[in-house]
């Protein structure tokens, strides 16, 4: 989160505040991805998976939340690199000038070493 806020500061955007509901939903989603690596191919094709978690966030917070997911290659086990990849993959979500809250989680798949990460960024009034 600090890395993402550093990036936002560089492009003159306000910092995002940590939101525990975003975190809990991101944790569930990342865990689900780690348990089912094949799911990652479906995500880019089908927003319904993300929408399920976004719906819960909206119901609990009234937020206009956006979810972002991704993974790093199993050959790269450096968490700092995972964050770097996330800031590239999720750039439009992270660079949303209306965003003010964030929650995210990273899980590692013990079978193949892949990292799966999920961020939810949104606007909470």
Strand order of the largest sheet: 1-3-4-2
Tell me the number of strands: 4
Sketch the topology as an H/E string, one letter per element.
HEHHHEHHEE
Strand content: 15-25%
What can be said about this structure in brief?
The chain is an alpha+beta fold. It has six helices and four strands. Helix 2 (20-35) runs antiparallel to helix 4 (48-61).
Describe the structure.
The chain is an alpha+beta fold and 125 residues long. The protein has six helices and four strands. The protein has a four-stranded mixed β-sheet. A hairpin with a 6-residue loop joins strand 3 and strand 4. Helix 2 packs antiparallel against helix 4. It is globular. The protein starts with a helix and ends with a strand. InterPro entries: CAP_sf, cNMP-bd_dom. This is Cyclic nucleotide-binding domain-containing protein.
Would you spell out the secondary-structure blueprint of this structure?
Blueprint: H1 2-10, E1 17-18, H2 20-35, H3 39-45, H4 48-61, E2 64-72, H5 79-89, H6 91-94, E3 101-108, E4 115-123
Parallel strand pairs: 1-3
Antiparallel strand pairs: 2-4, 3-4
Helix pairs in contact: 2-4
Give structural attributes.
single chain; 125 residues; alpha+beta; 4-stranded mixed sheet; 4 strands; globular; cNMP-bd_dom; Cyclic nucleotide-binding domain-containing protein; CAP_sf
């Amino acid at each position: 989160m600090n890395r993402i806020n550093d990036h936002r500061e560089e492009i003159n955007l306000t910092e995002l505040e940590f939101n525990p509901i975003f975190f809990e939903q991101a944790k569930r989603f990342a865990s689900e991805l780690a348990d089912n690596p094949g799911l990652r191919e479906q995500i880019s094709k089908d927003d319904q998976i993300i929408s399920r978690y976004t719906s819960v966030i909206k119901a609990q917070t009234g937020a206009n939340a956006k979810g972002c997911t991704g993974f790093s290659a199993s050959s790269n086990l450096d968490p700092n690199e995972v964050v770097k990849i996330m800031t590239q993959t999720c750039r439009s979500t992270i660079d949303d000038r209306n965003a003010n809250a964030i929650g995210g989680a990273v899980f590692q798949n013990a079978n193949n070493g892949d990292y799966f990460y999920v961020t939810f960024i949104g606007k909470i009034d």
